[in-house]
């Protein structure tokens, strides 16, 4: 009795499709592999300059159908010469080079175009440019794959530290689903009447003028001319009518004509930055913006890390959820060809690090560092000796485990039970307490240096 | 107040002050190069019998400094160890040929073949050092050992008298041992010989008040000798280690810079206020901040190399980058590698980046580290040719690598046969006989061979059990590292 073949599943489909694409490229053809929103593949062969024999087309088509089963598109093989919009498709900026190196000489190139419903923003890495006057707003995202790692508290401590050093700091609360940075920072001062969600819904109907989006926090920086501003997710609202946060939140993710969600969010952050200069006595734009991003694999996080910031501090504890989560995230960047662009924007933060005689910090950090390296190595160059010479090619971006400036190298924040569930309103001056200072010492020093450095160039070291 | 120094002036000073030679024997201690890092103080205690240290960390440097009356006084002064002033020091073994004081390589091999008990052999060395007259009359070590065996009473009396006399004079006899990797090429024999030294050292420590031994030894050799006699573990308790922290390494650099005979060195001292001149008026002692404060050192080094390994902080710190990239698997940096990397970095900057605003360009530093790695691999190859034989089969592969894969590659390369041939090559004797090297302890057992390489710092084990190599070895051996992103040619 013959058993039916095991069905091809989603994860099998991609490598199978790529294998076929490489084989077709080996016959000298330029190819583009297109995946639709359901995950099905079609192979576009560029025959505009070069004729393809009909029997080859038929053979490739049959192979796609049989190898990919349900994950073959209805028309699995397309010839560019027969497409109405071949130029647009083959010239798409969203197409990425294939993950495997294609040998030179007689080989066509292989590219991949992934069509997704959401989450595509992970695959679009860019770095904010300098202002017209040459100044630069340093945008740093603070992100945790899992919530509850002390990210928001760290954002608050860091913001005050930077303001103490004379920076104009704006904290934007992008944790829209669980807003928190606003109240923690604004302690003692009034929140603005509107929040990021208001900006998003009002801008969608062209009604954003006159919103009150930012407010100076209650914190008075010591010395210098530092300022600390807050743009909360949720506004204070007014007495006249109820503040319907959930109804607004439901509407922020919609794409509007000419602007997708990523553009809308970028515009909202920009508007908040401008508002600081507009409303502040000094008229200065913020030179440091901290984006408190929400946790998890979510579009807000995707846009924040991939597009809005020039530095992303990735929070985590040394456990399997952290590494499983970052592993998935890094795999997505890797497969969409973004590893090179994203890796130097990232830096790991080990939050809630234990330090007791039974569990010393050094042992914890050592384990953290190894797991982190393991995870990050997916984004690092494969430093393999050249087959011809047997020698390494210098200049690989492949930092060693011990490299203290590498993205995987954790910046520690000590676990401090006194800060769990902190209510800033009832604990004034909490950030000055000795135990808080001790817990954040390394983090503040290193993060400040990283944040105020210019963004990395695209080239490796 | 001295005016700041420019890039070219720092370059002049660095290339003049830094030792060019990378060979241990040419980097001799003298009043200018004797640097006393705080962490080495315990190693100089008269009662620290065992002083552990890997290749190139300064075992021979201290061995020779102790033998030199003047340098010993300097160390006594700077470490504030008064006992060092009241010593008579004699060599019990060393790289130098001193047939009167201890047997040389050829003689040792002959004695081992004749199954002489190592303890008796070193006992004879000690008694010779203590001036036993009957022994001095016997030129041959074979006869001296025989004398020790047949005159136990006279031997003991010699020790007792020397101990008493030393006590009355208020001095201590210190017999020091170095270059133990030269004892015997067969690892098991070398271990037995070292075991004999340690046994004697322990006997003196327990049985006398004023006769002490000090044994400078590689950690893996010490561990091997511990298997030889059970009481050896009593020596682990107060064993000292020669280690170099980042602050020590930079302290050494600044010491060299401040102790050169030039106008630049004088200006450098003026720029880093607080130098003192020692009692002899011939050497300059760096201020405490410059010797050991990482922040202050980093500021000073930033004047020489700039603060960052590129445009800004995200590219890494010059101060930590250098030691981080020279570190071996047991997290040790050899000061010699450190100084020679800097020396190369100056030359590279001069050749390629002469117009750079700092004395050292970060690309020059990268190049310096690469050269230092190659030097390191060559040195280890000289000391222990078997290390090269064992690592070479991994060339072209990538780490981290499974242990099974390593042993498979070794089988494919017939490593066991190679190690045996290597050992036989030295059996033939001849000229190479004077350069005796220690082979691996377990050439036939791949798993233990890996442990030996880990102990030497050539390999390290990841927490998941896989084998890794520190960059200082990995790059020079052309072993890759696994990453996810395919390299694009060109």
From TrEMBL, chain A:
<dbReference type="InterPro" id="IPR002586">
    <property type="entry name" value="CobQ/CobB/MinD/ParA_Nub-bd_dom"/>
</dbReference>
<dbReference type="Pfam" id="PF01656">
    <property type="entry name" value="CbiA"/>
</dbReference>
<keyword id="KW-0547">Nucleotide-binding</keyword>
<protein>
    <recommendedName>
        <fullName>CobQ/CobB/MinD/ParA nucleotide binding domain-containing protein</fullName>
    </recommendedName>
</protein>
<dbReference type="GO" id="GO:0016887">
    <property type="term" value="F:ATP hydrolysis activity"/>
</dbReference>
<dbReference type="GO" id="GO:0005829">
    <property type="term" value="C:cytosol"/>
</dbReference>
<keyword id="KW-0067">ATP-binding</keyword>
<dbReference type="InterPro" id="IPR027417">
    <property type="entry name" value="P-loop_NTPase"/>
</dbReference>
<dbReference type="GO" id="GO:0005524">
    <property type="term" value="F:ATP binding"/>
</dbReference>
<dbReference type="InterPro" id="IPR050625">
    <property type="entry name" value="ParA/MinD_ATPase"/>
</dbReference>
<dbReference type="GO" id="GO:0051782">
    <property type="term" value="P:negative regulation of cell division"/>
</dbReference>
<feature type="domain" description="CobQ/CobB/MinD/ParA nucleotide binding">
    <location>
        <begin position="142"/>
        <end position="179"/>
    </location>
</feature>
<dbReference type="GO" id="GO:0009898">
    <property type="term" value="C:cytoplasmic side of plasma membrane"/>
</dbReference>
TrEMBL record, chain B:
<protein>
    <submittedName>
        <fullName>Uncharacterized protein</fullName>
    </submittedName>
</protein>
